[in-house]
Amino acid sequence: MALPDSWLTPPPGPSTQAIQLATERQQVLTKPPGSLGRLEQLAITLAGLTGSEKPTIDPVRMVIFAGDHGVCSEGISAFPQEVTAQMIANFASGGAAISVMAQALNTSLEVVNLGTVGEVPELPGVRTELIAPSTANLAETPAMDAGQIEAALTSGDNAAQRAHQAGCHLFIGGDMGIGNTTSAAAIASALLGLPPQNLTGPGTGLTSEGLRRKTRVVEKALARHGEDQTPLAVLASLGGFEIAALSGAILGSAARGIPVLIDGFIVSVAALIAVRQQPAIRDWLLFAHRSAEPGHQAVLNAMQAEPLLDLGMRLGEGSGAAVAVPLLRAACTLHNQMASFTDAGVSDQSGDQI
Known about the structure:
Shape: globular
Low-confidence stretches: none
EC number: 2.4.2.21
Structural class: alpha/beta
Helix content: 40-55%
Catalytic activity: 5,6-dimethylbenzimidazole + nicotinate beta-D-ribonucleotide = alpha-ribazole 5'-phosphate + nicotinate + H(+)
InterPro entries: Nict_dMeBzImd_PRibTrfase, Nict_dMeBzImd_PRibTrfase_bact, Nict_dMeBzImd_PRibTrfase_N, Nict_dMeBzImd_PRibTrfase_sf
Family: Belongs to the CobT family.
Number of strands: 6
CATH topology: Rossmann fold
Distance between the termini: 62 Å
Strand content: 5-15%
Function: Catalyzes the synthesis of alpha-ribazole-5'-phosphate from nicotinate mononucleotide (NAMN) and 5,6-dimethylbenzimidazole (DMB).
Number of helices: 15
CATH class: Alpha Beta
């Protein structure tokens, strides 16, 4: 199997010199130390990841990976499977939440169609990289074969390469795929060793009976899968095309020196796979928000992640990450443009006029 280099090779580390310079700069800006809270550390972290004392996250690249799931045959979603293809068209026409946010934030938005049950015509802004109409039913058989997992990971890595070629300084991945919260819950259960009922949520809005059925499907999938916790085995057995592509994009972005802003439950599960494969990838991840999906907190805990926002969101698409972009921009702007005590002629903590 020809996996991307980023799957097999650890990423570079952040720049310790840039971190030191940014830390020193924060100490002489015209404010009490720590008064900007997490924005200060965010700027320092971004300095290390961008290799610059004065970091920027622009330009930002957003990529949504879309794919259908065979497990939908088990009746685990409140929405029909055709919605995946319909939403791809909605992304392209600018009507989806992430499309609106991309326009408002002046960021690029790319959609990668990896395979849908519904037909998707040629659309502006949509790349067609079809693997299959959907994954197999993970409750009965491995979701992807070796060729499919390779194709999905490579698609994600190629998206990271396009972001690198465009000079992007921040990568945001989004997901679209009816049934993908079932896949994500199964992956998280397998990797974390936690019971499915702790990680399986309502997704698109299941009733209590629907949620019980969904949990039973995840339990069945885990029993079929067994105890193998190696990232590639778990991903191929329980994952979706879009989740695998997201893992490939996260690894590929870090390998190319691009920080990644992680969205909610689905993208965090993809990030967990990446971290389990390459633990050093964790340094390159910033976490945007805490999803309302019940399994998200356990996944965040596994990566020792404290997200920037908690707004009760659970839409996916990268929408929660998009909402956090202004915070990252604010951190950089304050860090880069505030005057130092010397510049402003303001007394420092000692009371000396400097």
